[in-house]
Amino acid sequence: MDHESKLEEEILASFERDEWRSVPNLQQEIERYAAYAEASLTRDKQVNIPISSRDLEDIQAKAAEEGVPYQTLMASVLHKFVTGRLVEPSHAPYSHLKSTNHNRSDS
User: Which residue of 7, 31, 35, 102 has the fewest C-beta atoms within 10 A of its own C-beta?
Assistant: First the structure.
């Protein structure tokens, strides 16, 4: 059996086990991956920045979840930040502190 036939059988078996799911918000997913592609294809400069090994590992893990190279994910996040499209999730660590006035002189 050739490789393509084996792959087709594996896909069919997976489908028959009901492992396939529709993608919710398909248009958003397409736009997200288009942004990743744009960020990775339009690079004309390279930078070198120090980053903690823990942060790099976390970025690499997140990129693996998203199915993109980690450098592409980093470029995409930076692009979204500078264009004002980066939205911080409400469950981000310490996000509750940003809206709180910590000026103790009023007490």
Answer: 102
